[in-house]
Amino acid sequence: MMRIWLQLMLYCALFTLMVKIGAGNHALHCLYFYPKPYQEEAYRRKLADRETVERKRRRFMIPFFLVMLAALVGIIGLWNGVRGFWPAYGQALLFLEVMNAYDGAVIDRLWVGHSRFWVISGMEDVNYVQTWEQVLKKRAVLCVIWIGGAAIVAAVVAGIFA
């Protein structure tokens, strides 16, 4: 049980590190993380353009998902030695749902909500922090999505480590 807690903490730390790498030294690099109305205002103020933001989003999200998938498959299949679809599914679902809650509470509300790093110059007067209602709605949708995502992870683990 203690090993799973450690793994969950490491997985969430990797998630945080990946977000920080994506943002680099300026939050504008990750404008795609911000709520759509905030993005639209940044475009209106000519602080960014849609094509550049979309290109940056793809450049970040593809490696992000691949790294997070590889880490999860490694934790479940290598570190934990899980074999078989259903045991892998249970662990994958746990990790993905914990990551989902972590993203909403720690990343969205705590880090983004209380760090000056995420304030974009020229947008100081625009609220960018999601409300708890917005966070919970997004997390509820992702809870359902991760049910399917866990099946994909479990299939990969079962396929590699059968």
Write the layout of secondary structure elements.
Blueprint: H1 2-23, H2 36-44, H3 50-79, H4 85-114, H5 132-160
Helix pairs in contact: 1-3, 1-4, 3-4, 3-5, 4-5
Short characterization:
Helices cover 74% and strands 0% of the residues.
Q: Topology as H/E string?
A: HHHHH
Number of strand segments: 0
- Identify the overall geometry: elongated
Structural class: mainly alpha
Proportion of strand residues: under 5%
Total helices: the number is 5
Which percent range fits the helix content?
over 70%
User: Number of domains in the coordinates?
Assistant: 1
Task: Kindly provide the radius of gyration, computed on alpha-carbon positions and rounded to a whole number of angstroms.
Answer: 17 Å
How many strands, which pairing sense, and closed or not: the largest β-sheet? none
**Low-confidence segments, ≥5 residues, pLDDT <50?**
none
User: Gap between N and C termini, in Å?
Assistant: 24 Å
Question: Overall pLDDT, averaged?
Answer: 97
Q: Which features characterize this protein?
A:
mainly alpha; about 0% strand; elongated
Write a structural description.
The two termini are 24 Å apart. The model has no long low-confidence stretch (mean pLDDT 97). 17% of the residues are buried. It contains five helices and no strands. The longest helix is centred in the middle third of the chain and has 30 residues, at 50-79. Helix 1 packs antiparallel against helix 3. It is elongated. 74% of the residues lie in helices and 0% in strands. The protein is mainly α. It has one domain (2-160).
